Amino acid sequence: MPARERGRARATGRELAFPILQTIEVRDGRITEIRPFYWDTRAVADACTAPSGAG
Predict the structure, then answer these.
(1) Strand 30-38 and strand 3-8: pairing?
(2) Contacts of residue 32, Cβ cutoff 8 Å, sequence gap at least 6
(3) d(CA 38, CA 24)
(4) What is the Cα Rg of the chain in Å?
(5) Under 8 Å between Cβ of 15 and 8
(6) DSSP per residue over 33-55, as a string?
(7) Sheet holding 3-8, edge to edge
(8) How many Cα neighbours within 13 Å face the side chain of 40?
(9) In 3D, which of 6, 38, 42, 32 has the Cα closest to residue 20?
(10) CA pair distance 21, 26, nearest whole angstrom
C-alpha cells in the first residue's frame, strides 16, 4: 500500500509531499534492506537541487 510522505529538502529548504512505496526485506527476523520507490522522481530531484547560479 502506498503512503504519502512530506518533507523538506535540506539543500534547498523546499517542502514537498509525494506518494512512496517501499519494500522491506527481512532475514532471520532483522531488516536487511529497505528499497523505496518514488512516483515522481523529477519532483524529488527538483526539490533537492538548488537553482542554477545559486551559491
Answers:
(1) unpaired
(2) 25, 26
(3) 15
(4) 15
(5) yes
(6) EEEEEES-HHHHHHHHSPPTT--
(7) 3-8, 15-27, 30-38
(8) 10
(9) 38
(10) 16
The CA distance from 17 to 2, in Å, is 13
Interatomic CA distance for residues 37 and 40, integer angstroms: 9
The conformational region for residue 45 under phi > 0 = left, psi -120 to 50 = alpha, else beta, is alpha
Mean pLDDT of residues grouped by 10 in the chain (55 residues)? 84 87 95 91 84 63
Exposed, middle or buried, 28 (CB in 10 Å: 0-12/13-18/19+)? exposed
pTM of the complete model:
0.52
Q: Measure the CA–CA gap between 55 and 10, rounded to whole angstroms.
A: 15
